[in-house]
Amino acid sequence: MIHRILISLFFIIQLLSCGSQQQISRQGGGQDKENVQVGKVLPAWQEGNLDIHAINTGRGEATFFIFPDGTTMLIDAAGSLISSTAEIPPPPQKPDSTVSPGTVIINYAKHFMTGANNKQLDYVMLSHFDPDHMGSYGAGLPAGPDGSFRMSGVTEVGSKIQFKRLIDRGYPHYDFPRKMAQEPRMANYIDFINWAKKEYGATAEQFVVGRNDQIVLTRQASQYPRFKVQNLVANGVVWTGSGTNTVNTLPDGPTVQAAGALENVYCIGLDIAYGKFNYFTAGDLQYNGKSDHPWKDIEAPVAKVARAVDVMKANHHGTSNCNGSDLIKQLNPQAVIAHTWRDVHPNPETVGRMFSANENCQIFSTNMTDANKRRMGDALQRLKGLQGHVVVRVKPGGEQYNIYVLDDSNQEYNVVGIFGPYQSR
Protein backbone atom coordinates (compact mmCIF):
# COMPACT_ATOMS: atom_id res chain seq x y z
CA MET A 1 0.00 0.00 0.00
CA ILE A 2 2.75 2.42 0.98
CA HIS A 3 4.65 1.36 -2.12
CA ARG A 4 1.68 2.28 -4.35
CA ILE A 5 1.32 5.68 -2.61
CA LEU A 6 5.00 6.42 -3.16
CA ILE A 7 4.71 5.47 -6.84
CA SER A 8 1.66 7.72 -7.21
CA LEU A 9 3.47 10.63 -5.55
CA PHE A 10 6.43 10.08 -7.87
CA PHE A 11 4.24 10.41 -10.99
CA ILE A 12 2.48 13.50 -9.60
CA ILE A 13 5.85 15.15 -8.97
CA GLN A 14 6.97 14.26 -12.49
CA LEU A 15 3.82 15.78 -14.00
CA LEU A 16 4.25 18.99 -12.02
CA SER A 17 7.89 19.10 -13.02
CA CYS A 18 7.00 18.68 -16.69
CA GLY A 19 4.47 21.49 -16.48
CA SER A 20 7.06 23.77 -14.91
CA GLN A 21 9.66 22.79 -17.52
CA GLN A 22 7.22 23.52 -20.35
CA GLN A 23 6.78 27.05 -19.02
CA ILE A 24 10.54 27.54 -18.79
CA SER A 25 11.01 26.17 -22.31
CA ARG A 26 8.38 28.58 -23.66
CA GLN A 27 10.48 31.37 -22.24
CA GLY A 28 13.66 30.00 -23.70
CA GLY A 29 15.06 28.76 -20.40
CA GLY A 30 15.60 30.12 -16.91
CA GLN A 31 19.21 31.00 -17.67
CA ASP A 32 21.38 31.63 -20.74
CA LYS A 33 25.07 31.63 -21.59
CA GLU A 34 25.53 35.23 -20.40
CA ASN A 35 24.28 34.08 -17.00
CA VAL A 36 21.01 35.95 -17.41
CA GLN A 37 18.63 34.57 -14.82
CA VAL A 38 14.95 35.06 -14.12
CA GLY A 39 14.59 37.07 -10.91
CA LYS A 40 18.03 38.65 -11.27
CA VAL A 41 19.09 42.03 -12.68
CA LEU A 42 19.88 41.94 -16.38
CA PRO A 43 23.70 41.88 -16.71
CA ALA A 44 25.37 44.92 -18.20
CA TRP A 45 26.01 45.38 -21.91
CA GLN A 46 29.33 43.95 -23.09
CA GLU A 47 31.47 45.29 -25.90
CA GLY A 48 30.43 43.80 -29.23
CA ASN A 49 26.77 43.47 -28.22
CA LEU A 50 23.97 45.55 -29.75
CA ASP A 51 21.36 46.28 -27.07
CA ILE A 52 17.88 47.57 -27.94
CA HIS A 53 15.74 48.50 -24.92
CA ALA A 54 12.01 49.21 -25.22
CA ILE A 55 11.50 51.24 -22.05
CA ASN A 56 7.96 51.02 -20.70
CA THR A 57 6.52 54.02 -18.85
CA GLY A 58 2.89 53.33 -19.71
CA ARG A 59 2.72 56.75 -21.40
CA GLY A 60 4.27 56.29 -24.82
CA GLU A 61 7.46 55.15 -26.51
CA ALA A 62 11.15 55.30 -25.67
CA THR A 63 13.81 53.06 -27.19
CA PHE A 64 17.36 53.12 -25.84
CA PHE A 65 20.25 51.65 -27.84
CA ILE A 66 23.80 50.71 -26.98
CA PHE A 67 25.71 50.04 -30.18
CA PRO A 68 28.54 47.47 -30.36
CA ASP A 69 31.27 50.00 -29.49
CA GLY A 70 29.34 51.66 -26.65
CA THR A 71 27.79 54.49 -28.67
CA THR A 72 24.35 55.32 -27.23
CA MET A 73 21.14 56.54 -28.82
CA LEU A 74 17.64 57.32 -27.55
CA ILE A 75 14.72 57.35 -29.99
CA ASP A 76 11.71 59.12 -28.47
CA ALA A 77 11.00 59.94 -24.85
CA ALA A 78 7.44 59.25 -23.72
CA GLY A 79 5.66 62.01 -21.85
CA SER A 80 1.92 61.93 -22.47
CA LEU A 81 -0.14 63.58 -19.72
CA ILE A 82 -3.30 61.67 -20.66
CA SER A 83 -5.74 61.12 -17.82
CA SER A 84 -6.53 57.64 -16.57
CA THR A 85 -10.20 58.54 -17.10
CA ALA A 86 -9.76 59.27 -20.82
CA GLU A 87 -12.24 57.76 -23.28
CA ILE A 88 -9.54 55.35 -24.42
CA PRO A 89 -7.71 54.93 -21.13
CA PRO A 90 -4.03 54.22 -20.66
CA PRO A 91 -2.74 51.32 -18.58
CA PRO A 92 -1.30 52.08 -15.13
CA GLN A 93 1.73 54.33 -15.27
CA LYS A 94 5.01 52.50 -14.66
CA PRO A 95 6.38 51.95 -12.10
CA ASP A 96 3.67 54.15 -10.54
CA SER A 97 2.12 57.60 -10.87
CA THR A 98 4.68 59.22 -8.55
CA VAL A 99 7.49 58.77 -11.09
CA SER A 100 7.32 60.85 -14.27
CA PRO A 101 7.87 59.07 -17.60
CA GLY A 102 10.97 61.20 -18.15
CA THR A 103 12.44 60.11 -14.82
CA VAL A 104 11.82 56.45 -15.67
CA ILE A 105 13.73 56.89 -18.93
CA ILE A 106 16.53 58.81 -17.20
CA ASN A 107 17.03 56.19 -14.49
CA TYR A 108 16.83 53.32 -16.95
CA ALA A 109 19.30 54.84 -19.42
CA LYS A 110 21.74 55.84 -16.69
CA HIS A 111 21.70 52.33 -15.25
CA PHE A 112 22.59 50.64 -18.54
CA MET A 113 24.90 53.41 -19.78
CA THR A 114 27.08 52.79 -16.74
CA GLY A 115 27.66 49.25 -17.95
CA ALA A 116 28.75 50.65 -21.31
CA ASN A 117 31.16 53.08 -19.59
CA ASN A 118 29.30 55.97 -21.19
CA LYS A 119 27.83 58.90 -19.27
CA GLN A 120 26.09 60.65 -22.12
CA LEU A 121 23.72 60.05 -25.01
CA ASP A 122 25.56 60.28 -28.28
CA TYR A 123 22.30 60.67 -30.19
CA VAL A 124 18.79 61.76 -29.21
CA MET A 125 16.19 61.37 -31.95
CA LEU A 126 12.48 62.11 -32.16
CA SER A 127 10.49 60.04 -34.64
CA HIS A 128 7.85 62.80 -34.74
CA PHE A 129 6.27 65.50 -32.60
CA ASP A 130 3.43 63.82 -30.69
CA PRO A 131 3.38 63.94 -26.85
CA ASP A 132 3.67 60.17 -26.43
CA HIS A 133 6.98 60.37 -28.30
CA MET A 134 8.44 63.75 -27.35
CA GLY A 135 6.66 64.79 -24.15
CA SER A 136 3.90 67.23 -23.33
CA TYR A 137 3.82 70.90 -22.44
CA GLY A 138 2.06 72.78 -19.66
CA ALA A 139 2.76 75.80 -17.49
CA GLY A 140 2.46 73.58 -14.42
CA LEU A 141 5.30 71.28 -15.42
CA PRO A 142 8.69 71.63 -13.68
CA ALA A 143 10.96 74.31 -15.12
CA GLY A 144 14.28 73.43 -16.70
CA PRO A 145 17.61 74.33 -15.07
CA ASP A 146 17.60 77.95 -16.23
CA GLY A 147 13.81 78.41 -16.24
CA SER A 148 13.61 78.90 -20.01
CA PHE A 149 11.55 75.77 -20.71
CA ARG A 150 9.32 73.17 -19.06
CA MET A 151 10.38 69.57 -18.59
CA SER A 152 8.48 66.58 -19.94
CA GLY A 153 9.66 63.68 -22.04
CA VAL A 154 12.69 64.62 -24.13
CA THR A 155 13.12 68.01 -22.43
CA GLU A 156 13.27 66.28 -19.05
CA VAL A 157 15.60 63.51 -20.20
CA GLY A 158 17.90 65.96 -21.96
CA SER A 159 18.00 68.15 -18.88
CA LYS A 160 19.35 65.31 -16.73
CA ILE A 161 21.53 63.38 -19.21
CA GLN A 162 24.06 65.21 -21.36
CA PHE A 163 23.78 64.51 -25.07
CA LYS A 164 25.87 65.29 -28.15
CA ARG A 165 23.51 65.36 -31.13
CA LEU A 166 19.78 65.81 -31.48
CA ILE A 167 18.05 64.68 -34.67
CA ASP A 168 14.44 65.30 -35.63
CA ARG A 169 12.31 65.79 -38.74
CA GLY A 170 12.06 69.59 -38.66
CA TYR A 171 15.23 71.35 -37.48
CA PRO A 172 15.90 74.24 -37.79
CA HIS A 173 12.78 75.87 -39.27
CA TYR A 174 9.99 73.50 -38.17
CA ASP A 175 7.83 74.68 -41.07
CA PHE A 176 6.33 71.52 -42.61
CA PRO A 177 3.45 71.06 -43.11
CA ARG A 178 2.86 74.35 -41.26
CA LYS A 179 4.87 76.82 -39.25
CA MET A 180 5.10 75.06 -35.88
CA ALA A 181 7.77 77.07 -34.07
CA GLN A 182 5.30 79.32 -32.24
CA GLU A 183 3.02 76.52 -31.07
CA PRO A 184 3.48 76.17 -27.28
CA ARG A 185 4.86 72.62 -27.19
CA MET A 186 7.22 73.19 -30.11
CA ALA A 187 8.33 76.59 -28.83
CA ASN A 188 9.17 74.94 -25.51
CA TYR A 189 11.13 72.23 -27.32
CA ILE A 190 13.09 74.81 -29.32
CA ASP A 191 13.93 76.68 -26.11
CA PHE A 192 15.24 73.37 -24.74
CA ILE A 193 17.43 72.85 -27.81
CA ASN A 194 18.90 76.33 -27.44
CA TRP A 195 19.62 75.63 -23.76
CA ALA A 196 21.36 72.34 -24.60
CA LYS A 197 23.53 74.04 -27.20
CA LYS A 198 24.78 76.49 -24.58
CA GLU A 199 24.98 74.02 -21.70
CA TYR A 200 26.46 70.97 -23.43
CA GLY A 201 27.71 72.29 -26.74
CA ALA A 202 25.14 69.93 -28.27
CA THR A 203 24.29 70.10 -31.94
CA ALA A 204 20.92 69.70 -33.66
CA GLU A 205 20.14 68.62 -37.21
CA GLN A 206 17.40 67.34 -39.45
CA PHE A 207 17.17 63.65 -40.31
CA VAL A 208 18.33 63.17 -43.91
CA VAL A 209 16.57 60.38 -45.79
CA GLY A 210 18.82 58.17 -47.90
CA ARG A 211 21.95 58.59 -45.84
CA ASN A 212 23.73 55.76 -44.05
CA ASP A 213 26.41 57.94 -42.47
CA GLN A 214 24.34 60.31 -40.33
CA ILE A 215 24.13 57.91 -37.39
CA VAL A 216 27.46 56.15 -36.96
CA LEU A 217 29.58 54.50 -34.31
CA THR A 218 31.48 57.19 -32.41
CA ARG A 219 34.05 55.14 -30.52
CA GLN A 220 35.50 52.23 -32.46
CA ALA A 221 33.78 52.26 -35.82
CA SER A 222 36.64 50.44 -37.55
CA GLN A 223 36.12 47.43 -35.28
CA TYR A 224 32.55 46.92 -36.50
CA PRO A 225 32.46 47.43 -40.29
CA ARG A 226 29.20 45.46 -40.61
CA PHE A 227 27.22 47.90 -38.45
CA LYS A 228 25.15 50.43 -40.40
CA VAL A 229 22.11 52.65 -39.92
CA GLN A 230 20.15 53.34 -43.12
CA ASN A 231 17.77 56.33 -43.11
CA LEU A 232 14.54 55.23 -44.82
CA VAL A 233 11.80 57.84 -44.46
CA ALA A 234 10.83 61.20 -42.96
CA ASN A 235 8.31 63.92 -43.87
CA GLY A 236 6.94 61.61 -46.57
CA VAL A 237 10.31 61.50 -48.33
CA VAL A 238 11.33 57.86 -48.92
CA TRP A 239 14.67 56.33 -49.87
CA THR A 240 14.57 54.63 -53.27
CA GLY A 241 17.04 51.92 -52.31
CA SER A 242 19.73 53.32 -54.61
CA GLY A 243 22.59 55.44 -53.27
CA THR A 244 21.15 58.43 -51.43
CA ASN A 245 18.30 58.92 -53.91
CA THR A 246 14.85 59.72 -52.53
CA VAL A 247 11.30 60.34 -53.68
CA ASN A 248 8.73 62.67 -52.12
CA THR A 249 5.37 60.94 -51.64
CA LEU A 250 3.41 63.84 -50.11
CA PRO A 251 1.70 66.88 -51.68
CA ASP A 252 2.57 70.39 -50.51
CA GLY A 253 2.06 71.46 -46.90
CA PRO A 254 -1.27 73.30 -47.33
CA THR A 255 -2.76 70.31 -49.16
CA VAL A 256 -1.57 67.94 -46.45
CA GLN A 257 -3.00 70.25 -43.79
CA ALA A 258 -6.34 70.58 -45.56
CA ALA A 259 -6.64 66.79 -45.69
CA GLY A 260 -6.23 66.58 -41.92
CA ALA A 261 -3.10 64.44 -42.02
CA LEU A 262 -1.86 63.35 -38.61
CA GLU A 263 1.68 63.91 -37.37
CA ASN A 264 2.20 60.18 -37.92
CA VAL A 265 2.48 60.72 -41.69
CA TYR A 266 5.80 62.52 -41.21
CA CYS A 267 7.51 59.90 -39.03
CA ILE A 268 11.19 59.07 -39.22
CA GLY A 269 11.98 55.45 -40.09
CA LEU A 270 15.29 53.61 -40.26
CA ASP A 271 16.96 50.21 -40.48
CA ILE A 272 19.80 49.15 -38.19
CA ALA A 273 22.03 46.37 -39.52
CA TYR A 274 24.64 44.45 -37.56
CA GLY A 275 26.06 41.52 -39.49
CA LYS A 276 23.09 39.33 -40.39
CA PHE A 277 20.83 41.08 -37.86
CA ASN A 278 18.38 43.79 -38.94
CA TYR A 279 16.00 45.98 -36.95
CA PHE A 280 13.25 48.26 -38.30
CA THR A 281 11.71 51.22 -36.47
CA ALA A 282 9.43 53.94 -37.84
CA GLY A 283 7.53 55.65 -35.03
CA ASP A 284 3.81 55.86 -35.76
CA LEU A 285 3.95 55.16 -39.50
CA GLN A 286 0.47 54.18 -40.71
CA TYR A 287 -2.01 54.01 -43.60
CA ASN A 288 -5.03 55.65 -41.94
CA GLY A 289 -7.19 57.56 -44.43
CA LYS A 290 -5.71 56.03 -47.59
CA SER A 291 -9.13 55.41 -49.17
CA ASP A 292 -9.66 59.17 -49.54
CA HIS A 293 -6.02 60.19 -49.91
CA PRO A 294 -3.73 57.38 -51.13
CA TRP A 295 -0.65 59.36 -50.10
CA LYS A 296 -1.68 58.92 -46.46
CA ASP A 297 -0.54 55.31 -46.79
CA ILE A 298 3.06 56.08 -45.96
CA GLU A 299 3.78 52.40 -45.28
CA ALA A 300 3.29 51.48 -48.95
CA PRO A 301 6.32 53.31 -50.40
CA VAL A 302 8.45 52.22 -47.45
CA ALA A 303 7.50 48.59 -48.10
CA LYS A 304 9.08 48.87 -51.56
CA VAL A 305 12.56 49.54 -50.15
CA ALA A 306 12.44 47.88 -46.73
CA ARG A 307 14.22 44.55 -46.37
CA ALA A 308 13.43 41.51 -44.26
CA VAL A 309 14.37 42.03 -40.63
CA ASP A 310 14.84 39.97 -37.53
CA VAL A 311 13.10 42.41 -35.17
CA MET A 312 10.79 45.33 -35.80
CA LYS A 313 9.20 47.90 -33.56
CA ALA A 314 5.50 47.77 -34.35
CA ASN A 315 4.32 50.90 -36.11
CA HIS A 316 1.95 53.11 -34.09
CA HIS A 317 1.94 50.86 -31.02
CA GLY A 318 0.38 48.00 -32.97
CA THR A 319 -3.02 49.70 -33.16
CA SER A 320 -5.35 49.61 -36.19
CA ASN A 321 -4.57 51.15 -39.59
CA CYS A 322 -0.87 50.36 -39.36
CA ASN A 323 1.49 47.43 -39.93
CA GLY A 324 -0.32 46.65 -43.15
CA SER A 325 0.01 43.36 -45.01
CA ASP A 326 2.40 44.66 -47.69
CA LEU A 327 4.86 46.09 -45.18
CA ILE A 328 4.66 43.15 -42.79
CA LYS A 329 5.16 40.63 -45.61
CA GLN A 330 8.18 42.57 -46.82
CA LEU A 331 9.74 42.90 -43.35
CA ASN A 332 8.74 39.35 -42.37
CA PRO A 333 9.98 39.89 -38.80
CA GLN A 334 10.99 37.04 -36.53
CA ALA A 335 10.02 39.21 -33.56
CA VAL A 336 7.85 42.30 -33.07
CA ILE A 337 7.98 44.66 -30.10
CA ALA A 338 4.82 46.72 -29.60
CA HIS A 339 5.25 49.77 -27.34
CA THR A 340 1.63 49.71 -26.19
CA TRP A 341 0.10 52.30 -23.89
CA ARG A 342 -3.63 52.62 -24.64
CA ASP A 343 -6.53 50.24 -24.10
CA VAL A 344 -6.68 49.53 -27.85
CA HIS A 345 -3.00 48.52 -28.18
CA PRO A 346 -2.29 46.14 -29.80
CA ASN A 347 -5.15 45.63 -32.21
CA PRO A 348 -6.20 41.96 -32.75
CA GLU A 349 -6.43 42.35 -36.54
CA THR A 350 -3.00 43.94 -36.65
CA VAL A 351 -1.57 41.07 -34.63
CA GLY A 352 -3.31 38.69 -37.02
CA ARG A 353 -1.48 40.24 -39.98
CA MET A 354 1.81 39.71 -38.18
CA PHE A 355 1.06 36.02 -37.68
CA SER A 356 -0.15 35.71 -41.28
CA ALA A 357 3.20 37.00 -42.50
CA ASN A 358 5.11 34.71 -40.15
CA GLU A 359 3.16 32.16 -38.14
CA ASN A 360 6.12 31.76 -35.78
CA CYS A 361 6.48 35.49 -35.15
CA GLN A 362 7.46 36.27 -31.55
CA ILE A 363 5.32 39.22 -30.41
CA PHE A 364 6.03 41.20 -27.25
CA SER A 365 3.71 43.87 -25.84
CA THR A 366 4.96 46.29 -23.18
CA ASN A 367 1.45 46.60 -21.70
CA MET A 368 -1.81 44.70 -22.02
CA THR A 369 -5.02 45.92 -20.38
CA ASP A 370 -7.56 43.42 -19.10
CA ALA A 371 -10.12 44.69 -21.61
CA ASN A 372 -7.72 44.18 -24.49
CA LYS A 373 -6.81 40.71 -23.27
CA ARG A 374 -10.44 39.76 -23.85
CA ARG A 375 -10.43 41.34 -27.32
CA MET A 376 -7.28 39.44 -28.31
CA GLY A 377 -9.07 36.09 -28.01
CA ASP A 378 -6.99 33.02 -28.90
CA ALA A 379 -4.11 35.20 -30.16
CA LEU A 380 -3.37 36.21 -26.57
CA GLN A 381 -1.83 32.81 -25.86
CA ARG A 382 0.51 33.21 -28.80
CA LEU A 383 2.04 36.44 -27.55
CA LYS A 384 5.35 35.93 -25.78
CA GLY A 385 5.33 38.94 -23.49
CA LEU A 386 2.40 40.99 -22.20
CA GLN A 387 4.02 43.37 -19.72
CA GLY A 388 7.40 44.94 -19.05
CA HIS A 389 10.47 46.51 -20.59
CA VAL A 390 11.64 44.45 -23.58
CA VAL A 391 15.34 44.07 -24.38
CA VAL A 392 16.87 42.68 -27.57
CA ARG A 393 20.51 41.73 -27.01
CA VAL A 394 22.35 40.91 -30.23
CA LYS A 395 25.55 38.91 -29.71
CA PRO A 396 28.90 40.10 -31.12
CA GLY A 397 28.95 39.87 -34.90
CA GLY A 398 25.16 39.87 -35.18
CA GLU A 399 24.70 36.14 -35.75
CA GLN A 400 22.42 35.52 -32.76
CA TYR A 401 20.22 37.37 -30.30
CA ASN A 402 18.09 36.92 -27.21
CA ILE A 403 15.03 38.80 -26.03
CA TYR A 404 14.46 39.54 -22.35
CA VAL A 405 11.43 40.94 -20.55
CA LEU A 406 12.20 43.02 -17.47
CA ASP A 407 9.97 43.82 -14.51
CA ASP A 408 8.52 47.33 -14.91
CA SER A 409 6.83 47.51 -11.48
CA ASN A 410 10.02 48.94 -9.95
CA GLN A 411 13.36 50.30 -11.15
CA GLU A 412 15.54 47.29 -10.37
CA TYR A 413 15.50 45.79 -13.92
CA ASN A 414 15.04 42.17 -12.88
CA VAL A 415 14.48 39.65 -15.65
CA VAL A 416 11.04 38.00 -15.75
CA GLY A 417 11.33 36.25 -19.12
CA ILE A 418 14.13 34.84 -21.27
CA PHE A 419 13.50 34.06 -24.95
CA GLY A 420 15.86 32.62 -27.54
CA PRO A 421 18.53 32.36 -28.61
CA TYR A 422 17.35 33.24 -32.11
CA GLN A 423 19.48 32.95 -35.22
CA SER A 424 19.75 36.13 -37.28
CA ARG A 425 18.81 35.81 -40.93
Task: Summarize the structure in words.
The chain is of the alpha/beta class. The protein has a nine-stranded mixed sheet with strand order 6-5-4-3-2-1-15-16-17, covered by helices on one side. The protein has an eight-stranded mixed sheet with strand order 9-8-7-10-11-12-13-14, with helices on one face. It has helices spanning 2-26, 101-115, 131-134, 154-160, 184-200, 253-258, 299-305, 325-331, 348-357, 370-376, and strands at residues 50-54, 63-66, 72-75, 121-125, 163-168, 203-206, 227-234, 237-239, 246-248, 269-274, 277-281, 311-313, 335-338, 362-365, 389-394, 400-406, 415-423. 25% of the residues lie in helices and 20% in strands.
Keywords:
single chain; 425 residues; alpha/beta; nine-stranded mixed sheet; eight-stranded mixed sheet; 17 strands; disordered N terminus
SSE layout and pairing:
Elements (H helix, E strand, L loop, with lengths): L1 H25 L23 E5 L8 E4 L5 E4 L25 H15 L5 E5 L5 H4 L19 H7 L2 E6 L15 H17 L2 E4 L20 E8 L2 E3 L6 E3 L4 H6 L10 E6 L2 E5 L17 H7 L5 E3 L11 H7 L3 E4 L9 H10 L4 E4 L4 H7 L12 E6 L5 E7 L8 E9 L2
Parallel strand pairs: 3-4, 4-5, 5-6, 11-12, 12-13, 13-14
Antiparallel strand pairs: 1-2, 1-15, 2-3, 7-8, 7-10, 8-9, 10-11, 15-16, 16-17
Helix pairs in contact: 2-4, 4-5, 7-8
Helix content: 10-25%
Question: How do the strands of the widest beta sheet line up side by side?
Answer: 6-5-4-3-2-1-15-16-17
Largest sheet: 9 strands, mixed
* Class based on secondary structure composition and strand pairing: alpha/beta
- What sort of overall outline do the alpha carbons produce when their principal axes are compared? globular
Q: Evaluate the radius of gyration.
A: 22 Å
| Beta-strand percent range | 15-25%
Tally of individual helices: 10
Distance between the termini: 58 Å
Give the overall average pLDDT. Answer: 93
